[in-house]
Design a protein that fits this description.
By secondary structure, this protein is mostly helical. It has seven helices and no strands. It has one domain: Cytochrome Bc1 Complex, Chain D, domain 2 (Orthogonal Bundle), CATH 1.10.760.
């Protein structure tokens, strides 16, 4: 029973919006200018594994830390599992862009736009992340 409650609490935390409440409506209305073509997915994948170095924390496969990592000794939120369908449904591209611009408070996720990625590159990474939705 305690393990099930812990899993529910962890799921609720993963799905909790990261954007401040006073900004969420506007942020959720932001649309990604790119569609999921093979070329855009490939560009996003190259950025994910290269310039943006997303795979350092989120893994080559987008599942977050691998099963070989002992997470019991870690503190704070773990890197997001981009293959989690519930998480994919809960986040809009506008929210993901906001996180890439501002970081995710309470986690180790820093801001990447414009320090590391342009907005255009970030949207391409988002398209790639969307391709990891567990299907």
């Amino acid at each position: 029973m305690a393990a099930a409650q812990s899993a529910i609490a962890a799921s609720a935390e993963v799905l909790r919006p990261r954007v401040p409440p006073d900004q969420i409506k506007n942020v959720r209305s932001v649309k990604n200018p790119f569609t999921a073509t093979p070329q855009i997915i490939e560009k996003g994948k190259a950025l994910y594994g290269g310039k943006a170095f997303c795979q350092v924390c989120h893994g080559r496969d987008g599942k977050g830390l691998g099963s070989d990592v002992d997470t019991k000794s870690m503190k704070g939120a773990l890197p997001r599992d981009f293959t989690d369908r519930a998480w994919q449904r809960a986040r809009t591209d506008g929210e993901l862009m906001w996180i890439l611009k501002h970081g995710s408070q309470g986690t180790a996720m820093p801001a990447f736009v414009p320090e590391i990625l342009t907005e255009q590159e970030a949207y391409q990474v988002i398209v790639y992340i969307r391709s990891l939705d567990g299907r």
